[in-house]
Design a protein that fits this description.
- This protein has 646 residues and is mainly β.
- Helices cover 2% and strands 50% of the residues.
- Strand 36 (403-409) and strand 37 form a beta hairpin.
- Residues 1-20 form the signal peptide.
Length: 646
């Protein structure tokens, strides 16, 4: 009864965000709320322009996201309106009647993407419901006088919302098997262009009723996304994001039905927003450039500083090009003077979800932020916090030889964090790696495990010696598997895998644990400890040298010398047979005072090693970590708590 009451009290504490303030650290036993960490930001992935106003959606850790209305010339904030049950949006468009439409996402398990309408004349937001019942994410919207079209994931559906009747119709998947419709564009005649991924990077050409007319093959090979799509005059512009890390943009002549130009390294989110006559304005290597669509020639312009975040050109204001960044800033480029400036952000910063937790070399608990990124630290001795905003999304963190190391998405970038500054040591984007969830100190080596880019398969085990710069990258160390959990003992790195890479298609029938011997550069053994489990997650050693792991539905014990699975116990169920999305790291496991403490499926358990029985301690929890003081530190969205042992 005491455990159930404690869990109930923790649910109450985590349901409503506490105030972000420093306070004396707790001294009692059990749970204590530590408020919120100072992870705040203004991330605005979805943005559109109309009649002197910029419409953008600021994401929020626990919601609701905010639709912001700003003056494009001054940057002043006109209004911010909540979007119920939305955490953020990539999809914002303005219809010819000047109503604004927003497609949302919600990262909560089982939550679906929603459609909203904002009437600027009445300053009113209306929720239009869930467009497609199976889809969690509305990635893109495009509007005509009669309808709003949307593209989704995880099954790449196209929908049509009739503006007059309010009816929304699922038009199916224009390219079956693709997980994403990443972007949409509508030509003047109503023809719809849908950029898909994550395999083929094709563009589907559809009639206004959603019927497929044809498919345009990309001018580049390999998996990835048709990431940005726009129509400018007679040209279709498609910016690709390939799994190899390249971002070329193709210029397709719609009259002749052929690719006319291919422009390398285009980084701007919108490829048609800076159109003027026969020119478009793009970003290459953090510099604004002008592209002549007829000749394919580019000219570098004088604006090279946009602040943080991806750049989105929007519209011309006379001879001034205006745009935004995904960090919420508005920028202006003066075409006469060939100079640019960035306006101060007026958006209300929103809480950022905690993505990862680790103990630093100074004994503080460090937290990495989701999406917006940022890094925060909490001192268990004093209760004081600190924040570094200019750090990317840390998927994993660990301390190695007195320094803190961060594994940052995208590109599986490894940073050394010293003197309040992240220093880039390694980037695995060119090897199709994206998410370094697993990190552990392994003797002289910093070891890390990765998940590949969306659309790719085959993660990696990486080894880096920060003192010498030597690196060893074992791509596909177990073919098709991602490496999502690591432990180290006596010269051997132990890894736990997921059979998912960057797709929702499992590459094996069960995830595995393996032992990699550093001295001999060989795999000593590999085993699948839980039949049918497609991801394993966190692994750890107890005080007797026994290797333990926890999956979404099982606990297992392995003989570290031989790889023999000694015991397995199911603690709950998991829908392995009906998964529509990849599952990577969703578990955490530590050993303390004779017991294992595990987090999985948003629950924290105390685990008896003798019986393998579990006792529920708390829910809902997203991250669990054991600090240098021996106590547990927990997070849910932006909220931060501790469980103190007595």
């Amino acid at each position: 009864m005491r455990a159930i009451l404690a869990a109930f009290l923790l649910v109450l504490a985590l349901t409503y965000p506490a105030q972000a303030e420093s306070k004396a650290p707790p001294t009692g036993c059990g749970f204590s709320s530590l408020g919120t960490l100072p992870l705040m930001g203004a991330t605005t992935a979805g943005t559109a322009y109309d009649r002197g106003r910029v419409y953008s959606v600021t994401s929020s850790a626990s919601g609701p996201a905010l639709l912001a209305v700003r003056d494009v010339r001054t940057g002043s904030l006109i209004a911010e309106r909540p979007l119920p049950l939305a955490l953020g949006s990539w999809a914002v468009t303005v219809a010819p009647d000047h109503n604004v439409y927003v497609g949302s996402y919600n990262a909560t398990a089982g939550a679906m993407g929603r459609l909203f309408k904002y009437d600027p004349d009445q300053d009113k937001v209306t929720e239009l419901g869930i467009p497609v019942a199976t889809e969690t994410f509305v990635w893109t919207l495009a509007a005509t006088r009669d309808a709003v079209y949307g593209g989704t994931s995880p099954t790449g559906r196209l929908f049509r919302h009739d503006i007059r009747t309010g009816r929304t119709e699922d038009l199916g998947s224009p390219v079956p098997g693709e997980q994403f419709i990443r972007d949409l564009a509508v030509a003047r005649d109503g023809t719809l262009y849908a950029g898909v991924g994550s395999e083929s990077m094709k563009v589907a050409v559809l009639s206004p009723d959603g019927k497929l007319r044809r498919v345009i093959e990309p001018p580049v090979r390999g998996p990835g996304f048709a990431y940005d799509v726009d129509v400018v005059g007679r040209y279709l512009l498609v910016r690709y994001s390939t799994n190899a890390g390249a971002n070329p943009m193709g210029v397709y002549d719609l009259r002749r039905g052929t690719w006319k130009h291919l422009v390398d390294d285009v980084d701007s989110l919108t490829v048609g927003g800076g159109a003027r006559g026969g020119d478009v304005h793009l970003v290459q290597s953090d510099r604004l450039v002008r592209l002549d669509l007829r000749t394919g020639r580019t000219k570098q312009l004088g604006m090279t500083e946009f602040g943080e975040g991806a750049v989105r050109p929007l519209t011309w204001l006379g001879d001034t090009l205006a745009g935004t960044t995904s960090s919420g800033r508005i920028w202006h480029y003066d075409g006469n003077r060939d100079t640019g400036r960035i306006l101060d952000s007026t958006l209300t910063r929103q809480p950022v979800s905690v993505r990862s937790l680790a103990t630093g070399p100074d004994g503080r608990v460090y937290a990495g932020g989701f999406f917006t990124g940022g890094l925060a630290a909490y001192d268990p001795a004093t209760g004081q916090t600190q924040h570094w905003p200019d750090v990317g999304q840390s998927e994993g963190m660990t301390t190695h030889k007195g320094k803190l190391y961060l594994g940052v998405y995208p590109g599986a970038r490894i940073y050394e964090f010293t003197d309040d500054t992240p220093r880039l040591l390694l980037n695995l984007g060119d090897q199709e790696q994206d998410r370094p969830f697993a990190m552990v100190s392994a003797g002289d080596w910093l070891a890390f495990g990765t998940v590949p880019k969306s659309g790719s398969i085959g993660g990696a085990l990486g080894l880096l010696n920060p003192e010498t710069g030597q690196k060893i990258i074992k791509r596909n160390i177990l073919p098709g598997h991602s490496v999502v959990g690591l432990a180290y003992r006596d010269g051997v790195v132990y890894g736990a895998t997921s059979v998912f890479g960057g797709t929702a298609v499992p590459q094996d029938t069960a995830a595995k644990v393996f032992a990699y011997d550093l001295a001999s550069d060989t795999i000593k053994w590999q085993t699948a400890p839980v039949e049918g489990d497609l991801t394993l997650g966190s692994i750890t050693f107890d005080d007797q040298g026994r290797l333990w792991g926890i999956t979404p539905d099982a606990i297992f014990e392995i003989d570290a010398a031989t790889g023999q699975t000694l015991r397995t116990s199911k603690h709950q169920t998991y829908p392995w047979d009906t998964l529509r999305v990849p599952v990577w790291l969703d578990t955490h496991l530590v050993f303390h005072d004779g017991y294992l403490w595990g987090k999985t499926q948003s629950k924290v358990y105390k685990i008896d090693r003798a019986t393998m029985g579990t006792s529920l301690i708390a829910r809902p929890i997203s991250n669990m970590h054991q600090g240098a003081d021996g106590h547990l530190y927990l997070s849910r969205n932006e909220n931060f708590s501790t469980y103190r042992f007595c």
